[in-house]
């Protein structure tokens, strides 16, 4: 496979571990850590040449980040 | 793509990912995330997807700005 595939797999594993056990145990650090596996998945999609999947995934990730920010801001507790 | 550039950019991406997972301050996490995104974008450009690179370059800072809204408003680190 291409180097993007292996790099994406490594970033996906690192981000999954970081999102499962965030270091400050807060919603904010968990949400920031959740963006790492998203980029790993984007690299894997890049290795398989899926242009439409890349564009859709980037847009949906931004919208879901906005929704999560609104939810955490409304809840207020760490 | 040149092998040296591939290895260097892969090292930048891995360093950014590990630093994002490792540091504790939310602002430092966002900066390390920016380092990781800066390493990913040349991989997208090298395969010829300039439209995807434009979309990523426009949308990724917007997501960072949304996270900054709560990272700067309340200090989650001390709570």
TrEMBL record, chain A:
It comes from the Archaea. The keyword Transmembrane applies. InterPro entries: Prd_NiFe_hyd_3_EhaE. Keywords: Membrane, Transmembrane, Transmembrane helix. The chain crosses the membrane at residues 36-69. This is DUF2107 domain-containing protein.
TrEMBL record, chain B:
The keyword Transmembrane helix applies. InterPro entries: EhaD-like. The chain crosses the membrane at residues 29-45, 52-71. It holds the Pfam family EhaD. Keywords: Membrane, Transmembrane, Transmembrane helix. It comes from the Archaea. This is DUF2108 domain-containing protein. It comes from Methanofollis aquaemaris.
């Amino acid at each position: 496979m291409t180097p993007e595939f292996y790099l994406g797999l490594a970033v996906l594993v690192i981000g999954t571990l970081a999102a499962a056990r965030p270091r400050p145990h807060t919603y904010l650090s968990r949400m920031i850590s959740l963006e790492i596996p998203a980029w790993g998945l984007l690299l894997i999609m890049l290795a398989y040449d899926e242009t439409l999947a890349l564009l859709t995934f980037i847009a949906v990730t931004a919208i879901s980040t906005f929704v999560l920010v609104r939810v955490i801001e409304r809840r207020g507790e760490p | 793509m040149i092998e040296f550039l591939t290895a260097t950019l892969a090292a930048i991406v891995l360093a950014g990912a590990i630093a994002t997972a490792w540091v504790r301050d939310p602002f430092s996490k966002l900066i390390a995330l920016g380092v990781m995104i800066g390493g990913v974008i040349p991989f997208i450009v090298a395969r010829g997807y300039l439209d995807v690179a434009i979309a990523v370059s426009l949308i990724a800072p917007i997501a960072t700005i949304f996270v900054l809204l709560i990272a700067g408003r309340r200090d989650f680190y001390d709570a």
